[in-house]
Each structure stands twice: as C-alpha cells, then as structure tokens.
Amino acid sequence: MSDTTNRGRILFLVMTNRPDKLDVDLKRAGRLDRKIPFLYSQTPEEVENVARALVRKNKINTMSTSRPSRDVLKKLVGYSNADVEAVC
User: Fold this and answer.
1) Around Cβ 67, how many Cβ atoms within 10 Å?
2) How far apart (Å, rounded) are the C-alpha atoms in residues 27 and 10?
3) How far apart are CA 27 and CA 78, in angstroms?
4) What is the pLDDT of residues 16-55, one digit of tens each?
5) In degrees to the nearest 10, what's the CA dihedral of 52, 55, 61, 65?
6) For a Cys-Cys bond, which of 11, 44, 62, 77 suits 73, CB 3.0-4.6 Å?
7) Within 13 Å and on the Cβ side, how many CA atoms surround 73?
8) What is the pTM for the complete model shown?
9) How many CA atoms, within 13 angstroms, populate the side-chain half-sphere of residue 59?
10) Contact at 8 Å (CB) between 22 and 48?
C-alpha cells in the first residue's frame, strides 16, 4: 500500500459496526476518504419498510392494522436496522 506506483489502483475497504472503536490513526485526514453508512434508513418510508419486515420476521403480534405514526418513523431515520429491531 505504500508503493506510490499503485496510487489510484487499490481500493481499500474498512468496515465496522463500531466506528467509535477505530484506531485514531485510521481516522486522520486522508486515511479514510469516504465514509458510507451502509443500510441505514434515510427516509421514514424506508424505516417503515424495515419495521414491517422485522415484525413479519419475528412474528410479532401487533394487534393493529394501522400504520406507525409518521413522527415515530421520523425519529428512527438514521438508526441502524438493529436499532429499529430493538424498538420493534
């Protein structure tokens, strides 16, 4: 990776579910140029789809056919799917 002739030809991926535990040297400018949150819901509709799938997967009896409150869904935007599952 230190060979400058390879510059621009190597794609180095770092994946973690705990960015707070990454070494501080990896977080310095120029080390990780792009940070892409993976599979995080960006809209209330996406949160609702994830929640519906989790309710079906876990066979949760909701006893309701109504949709979740839009305010609740807005608060969950940006949460991971595991966090949405914990809320369900």
Assistant:
1) 10
2) 19
3) 21
4) 878 778 888 887 877 777 776 666 888 999 999 888 888 8
5) 0
6) 44
7) 16
8) 0.51
9) 0
10) no
